[in-house]
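Complex record, two chains
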Amino acid sequence: MAGRFLKYAFIALLLFPFAFLLMLSFGRGWGYPHVFPEQWTLENWRFILESQAGLGHSVLLSLLVSLGVAVPVTLASFWVSRAVSYSPYRRRWLVLAYLPYVLAPVVLAACLQAFFFRGGLSGKVWGVMAAQLFITFPYGVIFFSGFWNRRMQAMEQLVATLGGSRAQAYIRVLIPVAREALMTCFFQIFLISWFEYGLTTLIGVGKVQTLTLKVFQYVNEANIFLAALAGCLLVLPPVVLLWLNRRYVFSGAGGR
Amino acid sequence: MLLHAVDITKRYGREDVLRAAGLHLQSGEMLSILGRSGSGKTTLLKILAGLEAPDSGQVFLEGRDISGLPPNLRGIVYLYQEPLLFPHLNVFENIAFGLRLRHLPRQDVNARVTQLLDNLELPGHAGKMPHQLSGGQRQRVAFGRALAVQPKVLLLDEPFGALDAETRASMQVLLQQITRQYGITGIFVTHGIKEAIVVGSRIALMRDGGLKAYETIQAFIDDPTTGVRDEMDFWKGLS
């Protein structure tokens, strides 16, 4: 009985922030001593569709940036990580891959800003995506370095002696075997990009308004209802990805 | 002569692993190679398969120099101690793997794989995934996958090393039957003297980076440096 109570209490504790955000996103006017907002309205949600500088644009922009970073980085880091892992200088390369994490993203962005400005990438969506590569790509390389082990190397060699080319080894064995790792890496890089604030703020110079930046903007303006709405939108894609991961990756239902 | 390797040398750092090692293999012959751990057996097999490059020396297959040929074009299959079954494919697809790479017609693939499943005593396991098989069954599937592509030479690097004694004994007999049935030419690397004699039609000893091949098994037994006499005396002493 106590166990069940604790279980539900834990679930309620986890869900409370999300439920609270959702409630606030439908509210207007919330003054002391009211427990709930004084008005309930769909106006905040209508704002997503109607306002030109509204959240709809930011949602699409965030999706573009995160997908545009996560897809190529996952594939490229899978491939590059193989070269790093089988290199005689594996350890040195991996130490280099950890270097971007020595600095906070904002400090890294400050270091990069001059180069991006000179390259005409400052304030551009492409610029923000390129800047995010500095933290996501090394992450992908580190992530996959555990995948490329002696067993994988032996499997790749086996495919070769069975008559398969390098491309056939990738398509028929390595990618199917790495499916879960690829999905997990994609998911994590998507999240890193989705919630990225420091680099996006400095390299985007306020012109690339991703959803994460919008949330902070509304919070700074003390607009709690729009901040709650943006917060709801912010957690939606990660929740969908989490569900997809559970449904198709970790359950093993997606393959075979 | 089907396979001929001449003056193969290989050095890792300061260590000479292979020193002008050479071998020859007639068609249908199974050469057992014995040697201590680190004696260079695996390196030699990998060089023959094209998975490692020798520092010097040449490999000839059917009289053709294949030293510069990539492994996928040599027609030499290298099997590891581990079966290395592809975990995302079932038994049938694992055996059919090499045939799928060659884009063979479906009927041919089905016929060849079904026959191999029968010969390897795996008829009821076609739909099973690798994790549902025992160690011996996995190794049989690995053989089937190699035999399906009809390699010119089959290289077996301690394939029974991870099996228990009983399974190991039955696998030795099965391998002997299968290699005779399919006329397989191969090299079998092992630590076990008995296993080398059971499986091989000829025996060679790897020592100090070189390979000493014996023309007959009796010649191998008679050589006092192989240690076979000592082992035989030990067992005789017990009885």
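Note: The domain at 55-250 of chain A is CATH 1.10.3720.10 (MetI-like fold).
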